[in-house]
Amino acid sequence: MKDNAINIPTKAWFGDKTLTLKFPANWEVQECRMKGHGAKAIGLNSTKKAIENPIGTAPLSALAQGKKRVVILFDDLTRPTPVKDIIPAVLSVLSKAGITSDQIRFISALGTHRAMTRDELAKKLGENIVENYPVYNHYSHGQLVDMGKSSKGTPILVNREYASCDLRIGIGCIIPHVDAGFSGGLKIILPGIVGMETINYNHMTVTPRNPDGSISELTFGKVYGNCLRDDAHEVAKIVGLDMKIDAIVNEKREIVKIFAGDGLDSFYEGVKFGKKFYATDPAFNSDITVSNTFPIENEAGKALWPCYFSTRVDGEGVVISYSPDGQIHHYGNARFGSEYGGEQFAMARKLPESPYRRTLILNPYHSRIDTEYFSPLEKAHIFKTWKDLLDELKKDYSKGTKVAVYPYSSIQCPPFPEDY
């Protein structure tokens, strides 16, 4: 490793820049990469082939026959999915099936997140889509259709525009997820395009919790017997989704494989692949663990797991986020005042007690109110340059210091059993 330095990716959706982390030559630095590191991107033909040979449902060309109103759901900038690289294949198939452009609309499956701006929509979908098709932000506080309740009692309130369409397609990605096990599949319905009442019930009542509101079960990587996800699957089946197209992405946010289908069987097939692709052998008992939150730098809390797995007691957790956007505004758990926030606010502040001494946060776009997404405030220390952060570390660490670097931790995960 030349000059004891590691290059890491930063600024997802904002130019994708490389940052060089230089360490003292006499420190022991280990870069922990996922098994799929370096996988090559696939092309448009491979994507089209996947959606015409889906898992658990008919080909899109057959599903589109005779349909009048088509809706395409997509995820926002808190997910690395390069949706604009998938849409051309979808539109090509729809066109050959007789669907015209004025029959199609797009909806951002935001869930509890803030609305996307025009610039963000163009980054996600491409300029052509924003200029030539209606693109809507989902509104979780109104314009909803009541479709009853799930067996768990979850009220099913779904986006009105979506409910009016007779061909429904979703585009997203399968990556590790701290609560749902893995993102992707039918989760694009719940929380993607349902009401706040639906989301809150699923997250706060269906999900097992301790008396203080904290989650009582670790569900990172768990897709079987996961109460939150099982309920979301049931809700989605009641609401209806004709085809879900899920991408597996590499460390450059490029598509390396597509799993298309019913959003259920196709999802589990994708997770089977994803558990191997994203798996990262953790380092243990490190003095310092560096968790680079790329490519989900605006939801940094999803990328803290390496610090818990790898850092020795009284060691240091280093978290890097280079998102000019800051942390995404979340209507469920965001702080709206000094001691209060959204309906999920109290339980969202129940962070696991960290075994490490401090959290050193490298964030040149720091906002005080975002700090608690990274760490309890009393343990948080903010730095705007790597040099300043490293100078702080060198006060307490010298020759032989063990460092573990996770270069894109928000899509990495420890090895999980296939049946977990």
Percent of residues in helices comes to 10-25%
* Low-confidence sequence ranges: none
> Do you know the CATH architecture of the largest domain?
3-Layer(aba) Sandwich
> Biggest sheet: strands side by side, in what order?
3-18-14-15-16-17
| Number of H- or I-type helical stretches | 12
Query: What structural class do helix, strand and pairing data support?
Result: alpha/beta
Shape: globular
* Gap between N and C termini: 36 Å
Q: Mind telling me the CATH superfamily name of the largest domain? A: LarA, N-terminal domain
Total of domains: 2
Tally of strands: 18
Write down the CATH class of the largest domain.
Alpha Beta
Strand residue percentage: 15-25%
Could you tell me the mean pLDDT?
95
SSE topology string: EEEHHEHEHHEEEHEEEHHEEHEHEHEEHE
What is the name of the CATH topology of the largest domain?
Answer: Rossmann fold
Q: Characterize the main sheet.
A: 6 strands, parallel
Radius of gyration: 21 Å
Plain-language structure description:
- This protein has 420 residues and is an alpha/beta fold.
- The protein has two domains: 2-34 and 280-411, LarA, C-terminal domain (2-enoyl-CoA Hydratase, Chain A, domain 1); 44-277, Rossmann fold.
- 23% of the residues lie in helices and 23% in strands.
- The chain contains twelve helices and 18 strands.
- It has helices at residues 44-52, 60-63, 87-96, 118-125, 127-132, 160-163, 196-206, 227-239, 265-277, 305-310, 345-348, 386-394; strands at residues 5-10, 17-22, 28-31, 70-74, 104-108, 135-137, 144-149, 155-159, 167-173, 176-177, 181-182, 243-249, 255-261, 286-292, 311-320, 358-362, 380-383, 402-406.
- The strands form five sheets. It has a six-stranded parallel sheet. Strands 6-5-4-9-12-13 form a six-stranded mixed sheet, sandwiched between helices. A two-stranded antiparallel sheet has the order 1-2.
- A hairpin with a 6-residue loop joins strand 1 and strand 2.
- Helix 1 (44-52) crosses helix 3.
- The chain is globular.
- The model has no long low-confidence stretch (mean pLDDT 95).
